[in-house]
Write the structure tokens for this entry.
Amino acid sequence: MRVLAAMSGGVDSAVAAARAVEAGHDVTGVHLALSSTPQALRSGARGCCTVEDSRDARRAADVLGIPFYVWDLAERFRADVVEDFVSAYAEGRTPNPCLRCNEKIKFAAVLDRALALGFDAVCTGHYARVVDGPQGRELHRAADPDKDQSYVLGVLDAEQLAAAMFPLGDSRKSAVRDEAARRGLAVAQKPDSHDICFIPDGDTAGFLRRRLGDAPGAVVTEDGEQLTEHDGAFAFTVGQRKGLRIGRPAADGRPRYVLDVQPVSRTVVVGPAEALDVTQISAVQPRWPGAVPTGTFACAAQVRAHGEPVPAVATVADGRTTVELLTPVRGVARGQAVVLYDGTRVIGSATIDATGR
């Protein structure tokens, strides 16, 4: 097969490309330029997609003896990932930009271009497995639970999954680093990138304030008592405890947490931890990597990339997915994804638009 290997400049994508070559595929490496000022995307081990990463990817491709190109997707990334991130926070939602990047960039823009150029598949360094099931290809959790990325890949549809290769799905991260060293890849011990690539300093509130400006409002209790003011509701997310600047504890001495963000009134509602428990989720914009489910079915639900799945009952009808969590989950925010599993298999993903207790 003709395979396009997306090479970020890290150890995972380099070893994934190497395995594709070793499997006998005709492999071409490509690095995605996602910023017009790429060097600004790294601060120490934080961030990614910089000039340094591009050079590391090129060196890895040279070691593997494969052609290598850089594709400029900065404008598409800005529109589909960065602007989506900003607008979501402005609307009181908590987005996952890595999930959106997989959906809109790596397995939409890149895959579409790859197929148009005659490639048969796109290979990445994600930790997940693709298994041939009775009804077609299935997306499953990785063998390494600490590195599993099936949650952020739950946005793939059946056509995208059919053209996806994840060579690291059965491997542990330590084994991948050892293999990179044996293959002479200079990125063998390169640190993993952390946090949001376009906010390398980790200051999400500062990034949003620069984009949205100050929008002062009130921090209130569940019964409407104003406790303090804030500079912008976008700086808060459901479940947040630090940075509330309330100045005094609750009457019972327990800490307060963000329970809700109301962007229209610029109100942030705070309260006790137990008020964060969620047992009902309503979600829209479903994505199904395999067969589209209908009706009501038992499953496991996961609401964070590294969260624990909990037993659930889901109902799919009229483009909406409702999920009853049989074990409460604390601090579920609008805009996050709920990913449904059957054992290790990903059933599908949808975007949370409402929660209940």
Summary: The chain has eight helices and 19 strands.
